[in-house]
Specification:
single chain; 240 residues; 2 domains; 3-stranded parallel sheet; 10 helices; elongated
Amino acid sequence: QSVNNYMFNHIGNFAAASEGFCRSLVLGGVTRRFPSLKFAFLEGGVAWASSLYAALIAHWEKRNRQALEHYNPDALDHDQLVQLFQEFGDEVIGHELTAEDLALDYLTRNEEDPAMLDEFAACGFSRAEDIREQFTPNFYFGCEADDPQTATAFDPRLNPLNAVLKPVLGSDIGHWDVPNMNEAVEEAWELVEKGILSPDQFRDFSFTNSVTLHGGLNPDFYKGTVVEAAATKVLNPKAG
C-alpha cells in the first residue's frame, strides 16, 4: 500500500479482497457444505469473479486428483532422462551429466502424504460442472452504476460452461464517486443505451438479482415495501 496516494490504495482494493474471500469459500468447502447460503461481495465489481470462476475450472481440470498423476515424480525414468541430456544436450548441459548432477533423487523424492495431494478435496468436485453449480447460484457481486465490466457476468463466451453470474447494482450514494445521487440509476441505464447490457440483463442487474439475494433467504424481506408485488413475482412466479 501507498502511504500518500489514496488512488493507489483504492483502485482494485475491494476486488482483491473479495477475490481472496470468495476463493477461500470455494476451496474451503463452504459452498459444498452450505449449498443454499448466499454471499454478496460489494463494491468490487464482477470482472474479478468471472476471472476466478474460469481459473477454478482451468486449475481443477489440470490439478484434480486424477490429473495429478501426470506430474507424479515416481513415473520419471531417471536413467532415460540422463541419457536424453547426454544425447541431445549442448556443451553446457550435455555429455558429462549424471543423475547426481541433475539432483534427480532430491528433486523427485516423493515424501508427501497422499491424503494431502488433492487440494480440491474439500470442494467435492467430480466434474467441471460441479464448480459452476457451487459458484453461480449463491454468489452476488456489487457493481457500480457506471462499470462497463458488469457485462462480463452475462457473457457465455467468457464464462466457461455458459455460466451467468449475478451482479447487483450498488449505487454507492454518499461517496465521492456519485456526485449527483439523482443520476445513479440513469447512469446505470447507459449500459443499455451503449449496447453493453440488454434490457433483460439490466433488469437482472438492477432488480431480480437483489430480490433473490435477500428474498431467497427471507421471503418476507420485501413485505410492506413498494416493490412487494414485483418481488413476489420473482420469488414465487406461480403466485402471480
